Amino acid sequence: MSSTTQARLAGEAPLLNVRDLAMQFGGLKAVDGVALKVHPGEVVSVIGPNGAGKTTVFNCISGFYQPTGGEVYFEDKPMHRLPGFKIAQAGMVRTFQNVRLFKEMTVVENLLVAQHMHAERNLLRGLFKTPGYRRSEKALMQQAGDWLERVGLLEFANREAGNLAYGQQRRLEIARCMVARPKLLMLDEPAAGLNPNETRDLDDLIVSLTRDEGISVLLIEHDMSLVMGISDHIYVVNQGQPLADGTPDEIRHNDAVIKAYLGEE
């Protein structure tokens, strides 16, 4: 039994705690009563058919939408009324279904921009290039280089991000999130459009982030082999409502999940 599973069974305080989440657009209730928890060091996945409300759940948790009901707590602090940038500052950082890089900037510039919260912002120190300012700039560049090496993109540091292959852009997105020093990384369909080799590399990268960096990962994904292979816990959403949750093995053998999502034989 993994330490994260033991923490969940022991009832230890979660890093992220979402309770009775709801999101309504006019007369349409896109999300209704969704609850989930992510403990430190866990990989937690949210699965469900297309249109099930998974991305809407992500948008509510990350502040892209303000939920019409329910609560989102991160490290026991309420997040459900905060704007997205405040949630990111608290340590929750996300990617989107579609790659959202600064495509006309270089690869390394994308990572430097993402570190703005950790940069030296004193105007006079910047104008006079004081030793403290130069140390700060050097540290940011070092951090960017370290993560580019980690995701296999160091040799492309000065290439425009828009000229990278699609799989490389996906890895750059994750590196851009990581330089922001998150405690929870939220990945919205990171394997979409990747070939099998790129998906295996992504699998290894996500596992290494939890193992080596100690962060938690909340994942939306349609690639079931990826989900089943790396998840500690899985939540299933169908038509905006919670359907089931459990370990990968429990979800794999859940009759309601098989009927609603995985298909019946």
Automatic annotation (TrEMBL):
It comes from the Bacteria. GO terms for biological process: D-alanine transmembrane transport; L-alanine transport; L-isoleucine import across plasma membrane; L-valine import across plasma membrane. Gene3D superfamilies: P-loop containing nucleotide triphosphate hydrolases. The keyword Ion transport does not apply. The keyword ATP-binding applies. Keywords: Amino-acid transport, ATP-binding, Nucleotide-binding, Transport. GO terms for molecular function: ATP binding; ATP hydrolysis activity; L-isoleucine transmembrane transporter activity; L-phenylalanine transmembrane transporter activity; L-valine transmembrane transporter activity. SMART domains: AAA. Residues 16-264 form the ABC transporter domain. InterPro entries: AAA+_ATPase, ABC_AA/LPS_Transport, ABC_transporter-like_ATP-bd, ABC_transporter-like_CS, BCA_ABC_TP_C, P-loop_NTPase. GO terms for cellular component: plasma membrane. NCBIfam families: PRK11300.1 (NF008449). Belongs to the ABC transporter superfamily. This is High-affinity branched-chain amino acid ABC transporter ATP-binding protein LivG. It comes from Cobetia crustatorum.
